[in-house]
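Q: Given only this backbone (1000 positions), what sequence would you predict?
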């Protein structure tokens, strides 16, 4: 090659060399714990860069030329690190392990320079000012000076810490005399004590579970090929012998069945080294969980007595034997006999056992491609098999299969521009098989006609009684398969004080359902015919009937888009503003073959015509969500921080429930909602017949339905207090708009005249005219980890009101408006309104802090140190409940939306309520009863035993409801039921779970 050409090529290479820059970052640790405040410098030729490790022990350099650099790491009390760093070969990250200096050298380094021999004085650091975790360029004229001892002073990376690691290590060195020989046992002991000192004063893991967040066996400082891999092997178990017996609502001594909970856990991760296949080995992770649980629960109920079965139903009502319906006699054989007497509330109690088998697999693989690109993928799998027995001994089984796969591609386009692409696929199938499927045609053998008697839907119809007798029911056969395919893109662009993120997402969702909504039908008995709900059953006269089956296979499709831009603007060291805007569009769900039915409603609900096709809802493409937040430190050198934010959030997940109800309607399906009347007489044998006066469709949605949204605003102030305390006061406000409301058009109260006999009725109508408000204030007092103790106490006062929490649960529930002409009368406390809530969390770790046993040695230290005790106490007022008068709404077969009259007095007393006056709706308010107060106390104890350098054994015992305290879950609020005002259930009693996990 000619000399001139060689010079030209050399010039081009030299000019291009600065462009070959790479990002390098790493972590500095000691004894497995991150070290904040360590000084890190890298040098290549006349270029020198400096950084300080942050709270996570991490540092980073954004632009390093490819090639060999010299890295120096210095920290007072530790031996300095002086190594070569090959950027091209080092990859994305490095991990450095500090070693503690002998005691004599620690004391010598802590002596003021004027008192040290000149040859031992540390060289002054470069004039650059390093920033925690970041990069600061030093003057190019400065030459690298190898450091023989710790020469850099720690930067203040955590102003709230009570002392710096430097101070704690100095205290440790002064308190414990140790041999100067670096290989002596005393240095090993001092290393362990210094590790405890880091836990005291603010390392990255100085949080609530710091001893267990990163086990010492994880990370580096290992020798041999096996040191490249991390893993764990664990076993979690629980046995009925260690648990308290389920609470008995009846006081009966019900036997506790034997059961076991067992879970096995295995994880493994590290580089996937295959000879001659990968130059830079990818990193893998795999985890597997094996669960086999057998659960126990005690259930109480009221079942028919022998005298009731013979016709003596009580309250002076008797059904002659010759008038008892044969269908009722046939269904009665599925009711168990009472197993104790003397109670009119409950007379039957039995333990129920359910079985759950679960297998879960998680896996991940990550690979760097060059210096700018990172690709990783994950695959997760889950299989669940369940067997559940109900009160009547019906054993229903379920099988769930799910998997999720994700691929991520991350690319550093420039030093301040990063791109991220993601593809995700998820699939889930859920199969439910009821006890009677393909086993016994209960309805057919009982002489009940009109419902679906396909073998997969064999079984009894659902029976509902207003007098508290247990409802006869069983699961419904179904096989649902859902899948989602998603693509997303986002970019991070850093420019000056701005960190701008923008991107977009697209989701293609498929919901494939095979099953019926209510194939066996529902009969409700209220005593309207004989004066006794059970008497009506024996007479074979239901008050209402509901049915919906046909069009079993449904294939829903939905497209969801969103786009966003967000700017994290660091205006000043004491002020940050985070502003952004997001656009979301969820298209109304369509059915693959256009098999959705809605009603075309005329003005004033004077007529209704079924329309078959896809969703009638209008697309809403204007869902723009602005977001704004700020963090401000108003006073210099003060710990006071003020935060505030505002955002708009849309509920884009409502369409699936709407489509499910529209797909199960006439004329594509057989559906009805009928009340017993002279025009439509109902019997058990012939109760599933459509009425000529009632619309066969049971559901309709307003074509102008719009997606609801909330406006959230929040403000908080935080300040440090003496004694390692932090106080935070927060206010949160939420305003909901376009909430869902359900009503029953053209219905009227009992005793009134039908105002429009020719108008359609018998269907639920869904609109989006509701509203809601919620305001809450909370005060939190938190104690930072100090001497092994940390705690948090938070009190919240809130109030929530709405008239929109009425839809979304289907038919025959308490969520439908009582008066369709006065929806504003539904405005009341929200069902989730909890006025007072107190939460207390406590944690204590032994052997932490200078006064907490840090320097305890020998067998006492081994026995006492590193135990962690945690507890959580939650106490709150009860949630609102609605009093219900279970009767049919005229013009439809719906029950449960009528409320009784309130006469004054205690809200939980049956004497305070009465049947609504003829021609009027009930006056009792929705959610006017306060439910039982809530209380939970859970605790755990945990310790990691350090067996070897690479082996840690964790022992953990978790206790739920440690005090074995009984807390009622809810009250029965059905007027006329003997169970009104009584507890409807209790929380689970004390349970102990033990975990053993070996980490290597």
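A: Predicted residues:
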């Amino acid at each position: 090659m000619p000399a001139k050409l060689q010079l030209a090529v050399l010039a081009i290479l030299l000019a291009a060399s600065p462009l070959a820059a790479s990002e390098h970052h790493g972590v500095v640790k000691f004894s497995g714990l991150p070290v904040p405040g360590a000084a890190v410098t890298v040098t290549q030729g006349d270029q020198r860069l400096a950084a300080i490790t942050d709270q996570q022990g991490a540092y980073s350099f954004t632009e390093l030329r490819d090639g060999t650099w010299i890295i120096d790491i210095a920290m007072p009390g530790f031996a300095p690190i002086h190594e070569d760093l090959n950027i091209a070969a080092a990859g994305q990250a490095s991990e450095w392990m500090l070693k503690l200096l002998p005691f004599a050298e620690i004391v010598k380094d802590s002596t003021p320079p004027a008192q040290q021999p000149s040859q031992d004085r540390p060289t002054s650091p470069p004039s650059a000012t390093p920033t925690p975790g970041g990069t600061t360029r030093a003057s190019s004229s400065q030459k690298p000076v190898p450091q023989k001892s710790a020469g850099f002073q720690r930067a203040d990376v955590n102003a709230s810490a009570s002392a710096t690691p430097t101070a704690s290590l100095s205290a440790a060195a002064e308190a414990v005399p140790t041999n100067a020989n670096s290989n002596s046992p005393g240095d090993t002991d001092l290393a362990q004590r210094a590790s405890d000192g880091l836990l005291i004063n603010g390392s990255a893991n100085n949080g609530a579970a710091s001893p267990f967040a990163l086990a010492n066996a994880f990370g580096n400082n290992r020798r041999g090929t096996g040191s490249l891999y991390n893993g764990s092997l664990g076993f979690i178990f629980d046995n009925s012998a260690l648990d308290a017996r389920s609470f008995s609502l009846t006081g009966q001594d019900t036997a506790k069945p034997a059961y076991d909970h067992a879970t096995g856990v295995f994880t493994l991760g590290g580089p996937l080294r295959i000879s001659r296949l990968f130059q830079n080995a990818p990193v893998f992770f795999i985890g597997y969980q094996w669960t086999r649980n057998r659960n126990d629960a005690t259930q109480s109920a009221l079942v028919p007595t022998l005298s009731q079965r013979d016709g003596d139903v009580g309250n002076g009502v008797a059904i002659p034997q010759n008038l008892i319906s044969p269908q009722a006699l046939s269904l009665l054989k599925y009711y168990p006999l009472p197993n104790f007497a003397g109670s009119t509330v409950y007379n039957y109690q039995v333990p129920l056992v359910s079985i759950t088998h679960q297998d879960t697999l998680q896996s991940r693989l990550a690979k760097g491609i060059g210096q700018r690109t990172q690709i990783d993928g994950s695959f997760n799998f889950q299989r669940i098999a369940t067997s559940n027995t109900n009160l009547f001994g019906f054993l229903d089984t379920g099988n769930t299969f799910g998997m999720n796969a994700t691929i991520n591609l991350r690319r550093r386009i420039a030093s301040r521009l990063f791109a991220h692409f993601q593809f995700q696929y998820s699939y889930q199938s859920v199969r439910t098989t009821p006890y009677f499927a393909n086993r016994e045609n209960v309805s057919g053998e009982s002489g009940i006609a009109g419902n679906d008697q396909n073998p997969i839907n064999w079984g009894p119809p659902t029976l509902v009684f207003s007098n508290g007798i247990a409802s006869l029911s069983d699961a419904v056969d179904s096989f649902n398969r859902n899948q989602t395919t998603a693509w997303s893109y986002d970019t991070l662009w850093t420019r000056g004080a701005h960190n701008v993120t923008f991107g977009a997402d697209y989701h293609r969702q498929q919901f494939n359902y095979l099953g019926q909504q209510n194939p066996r039908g529902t009969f409700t008995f209220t005593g309207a015919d004989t004066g006794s709900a059970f008497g009506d059953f024996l007479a074979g006269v239901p008050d209402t009937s509901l049915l919906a089956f046909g069009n079993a296979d449904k294939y829903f499709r939905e497209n969801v888009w969103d786009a966003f831009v967000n700017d994290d603007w660091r205006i000043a060291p004491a002020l940050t503003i985070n502003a952004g805007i997001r656009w979301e569009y969820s298209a109304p769900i369509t059915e693959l073959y256009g098999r959705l039915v809605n009603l075309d409603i005329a003005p004033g609900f004077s007529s209704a015509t079924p329309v078959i096709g896809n969703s009638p809802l209008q697309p809403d493409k204007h869902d723009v969500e602005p977001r704004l937040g700020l963090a401000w430190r108003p006073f210099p050198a003060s710990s006071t921080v003020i935060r505030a934010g505002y955002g708009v959030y849309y509920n884009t997940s409502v369409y699936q429930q709407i489509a499910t109800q529209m797909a199960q309607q006439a004329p594509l399906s057989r559906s009805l909602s009928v009340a017993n009347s002279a025009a439509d007489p109902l019997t058990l044998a012939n109760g599933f017949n459509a009425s000529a006066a009632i619309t066969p469709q049971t559901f309709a949605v307003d074509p102008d339905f719009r997606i609801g949204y909330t406006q959230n605003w929040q403000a908080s102030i935080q300040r440090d207090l003496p004694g390692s305390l932090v106080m935070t006061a927060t206010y949160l406000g939420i305003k909901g708009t376009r909430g869902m409301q359900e009503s029953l058009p053209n219905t009227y109260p009992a005793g009134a005249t039908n105002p429009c006999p020719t108008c359609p009725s018998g269907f639920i109508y869904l609109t989006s005219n509701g509203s809601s408000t919620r305001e809450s204030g909370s005060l939190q007092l938190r104690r930072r980890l100090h001497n092994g103790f940390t705690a948090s106490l938070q009190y919240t006062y809130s109030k929530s009101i709405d008239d929109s929490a009425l839809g979304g649960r289907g038919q025959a529930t308490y969520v439908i408006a009582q008066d369709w002409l006065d929806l504003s009368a539904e405005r009341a406390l929200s069902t989730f309104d909890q006025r007072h809530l107190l939460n207390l969390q406590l944690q204590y770790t032994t052997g932490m802090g200078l006064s907490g046993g840090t320097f305890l040695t020998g067998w006492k230290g081994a026995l006492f140190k590193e135990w962690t005790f945690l507890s959580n106490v939650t106490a709150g007022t009860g949630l609102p409940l609605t009093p219900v008068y279970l009767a049919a709404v005229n013009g439809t077969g719906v029950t449960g939306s009528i409320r009784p009259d309130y006469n004054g007095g205690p809200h939980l007393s049956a004497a305070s309520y009465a049947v609504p006056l003829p021609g009027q709706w009930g006056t009792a308010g929705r959610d006017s009863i306060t439910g039982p107060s809530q209380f939970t106390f859970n605790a755990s104890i945990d310790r990691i035993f350090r067996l070897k350098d690479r082996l840690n054994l964790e022992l953990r015992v978790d206790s739920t409801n440690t005090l074995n305290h009984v807390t009622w879950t809810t009250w029965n609020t059905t007027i006329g039921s003997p169970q009104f005002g009584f507890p409807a259930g209790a929380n689970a009693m004390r349970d102990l779970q033990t975990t053993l996990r070996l980490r290597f």
